[in-house]
Amino acid sequence: MKKLLDLLSEEMGQAFAAAGYDSNLGRVTISNRPDLCEYQCNGAMAGAKQYKKAPIMIANEVVAQLAESKAFKEAVAVPPGFLNLKLSEEYLRQFLTDMAKDEKFGLEMPKKPKKVIIDYGGPNVAKPLHVGHLRSAIIGESIKRIVRYAGHDIIVDIHLGDWGLQMGLIITELQERQPDLVYFDENYEVEYPAEAPFTITELGEIYPTASAKSKEDEDYKQRALDATFKLQSGVRGHRALWKHIINISIPDLKKNYANLNVDFELWKGESDVHDVIPGMAEQMKAEGYAYVSEGALVVDVKEESDTKELPPCMILKSDGAALYTTTDLATIMERVKDYDPDLMIYLTDKRQALHFEQVFRCARKTKLVKPQTEMIHIGFGTMNGKDGKPFKTREGGVMRLETLIQDINDEMYRKITDNRDVSEEEARQTAGIVALSAIKYGDLSNQASKDYIFDIDKFTSFEGDTGPYILYTIVRIKSILNKYKEQGGVIAEDGAFGLASSDYEKTLMLELAKFNAMLETACEETAPHKVCAYIYDLANAFNKFYHETKILAEEDETKKQGYIALLVLTRDVLETCIDLLGFSAPERM
Ligand code: ARG
């Protein structure tokens, strides 16, 4: 379905043409003076020079052509030459009727869907998930859902950090604690035990301990580096322990992500490309892209137009070890081979911007990707506490994701049970749903690249630009619809929208009509905050309408039917949008 503004611009363009002017002058936009009109067109002003005519004369001639207009019920030429427009209620009614019938509410599907790989989450195995990983998961999940809804072919990969120093640290600490484990016995030749020599809880404690020790003890750190090297070069016992670490961690990660309503198709990691790295490095060398500099293998990635210094991309360190850049390049090579994507999207903290700039340039230069393949890094800002500093626990430690979620759940539970009679079970369940909306909306309503302040009081509020406010609005609509059904009302399949009979109703209808245009932009710009801004406006428009309108008490049956159709569409659009943001609404709250 075409976007409303395009339809209006077309009609306006025809009026310009009929009056003898360039139809491109007929571009209609949303009014920046909503007190005067709903839409406007400044084409007469723009055409004045070209046609050597006073803009108001052009505007008047165009208005004369709009006398029979189906779309505009009012078109007024205002000095010096603006066109102030109001939409016909009948036209709007028809637009919403078509929109409600369409499976995607009028969003047009791409002629040629893109194959897109989205790389987000990126947790490091055996390190606790902390709030830094929260943003990647929340934003990535929403972008996945938006781009998929918009009709593209999406593959998501969690890209585990499963191959680095943290593995060496854990193995080292295990050896300190249990030196007699068979994994450390070089003469051990039979199969290793199926059972891991540690639990997930121990694992959670081993890493921080090992990491702290390595910072104080040079010798310990060296042993961890050696262990990492042994693991990567294939020492049997190290590989077996590593497998245990992975096997124990993944179910725990899955559980954590499931609690966040986040899921991935591919659970690949840095380790998966280990075996293809030597070949890739050789090829880069053979083709003349990579050269040895101070013992390391590098590829120059600077370009003439650079305004800042871009260091060469390091492929192998002087000891032959691969780096973060190397695994990312090799992963690109594999993804191209396996999926041939048109677009690859990465979500990490914006402090990794230089890393991705180097990786993308190197991938292009060395022809790991086709020239037309797009690669984008979406770098997000930091989540800060109320003091404006990176989020910490009350004790000042790094905030673990689980703790944070628990805190918000508890706060939500307190609010829900405050002065209300709900069963413990329902309250806990609702608190979980609403808490997730608070966290996600609090994050997604900001432009991703910006830092934001994680403010529990604000995010959990039922009023204002928050997730709970949106849910509250949805629940309100559902409860009216339930009451309507209890009173014997039947909700028609394709609702009989009425003609807007008040400004409140029309405003709500106009908000609804923006859906397809909004979503198209949110997808093109990979910008979930546009969805948030839209549903906030929509919820506000609905609540104003609700306060000013007697819905179920309306006696005119046709009018009431129109209200019900509007409620159903508002609910459906809001629920679709929150699903795209990665959360859902309860039945009651
Ligand atoms: N594991 C990394 C980190 O915690 C994030 C990985 C992001 N994805 C990528 N392909 N580099 O910083």
In a few lines, what is going on in this structure?
The chain has 589 residues and is an alpha/beta fold. The chain has 20 helices and 13 strands. Among the domains are: 4-87, Gyrase A, domain 2, CATH 3.30.1360; 165-259, no CATH class; 272-380, Rossmann fold.
Describe the structure.
It is a single chain. Strand 1 and strand 2 (39-41) form a beta hairpin. With 589 residues, the chain is an alpha/beta fold. The chain contains 20 helices and 13 strands. It has a four-stranded antiparallel β-sheet with strand order 1-2-4-3. A four-stranded parallel β-sheet has the order 6-5-10-11. It is globular, with a radius of gyration of 29 Å. It has helices at 4-18, 43-51, 55-65, 89-101, 131-149, 165-177, 200-216, 218-233, 236-259, 277-286, 324-339, 353-365, 401-417, 424-444, 456-459, 467-486, 503-513, 515-524, 528-548, 557-581, and strands at 28-30, 39-41, 72-78, 82-87, 115-119, 153-157, 290-293, 296-299, 313-316, 343-349, 374-380, 383-384, 452-453. The relative contact order is 0.10. The two termini are 35 Å apart. Arginine binds at residues 119, 122, 124, 159, 161, 328, 346, 348. Arginine is lined by residues 119, 122, 124, 159, 161, 328, 346, 348.
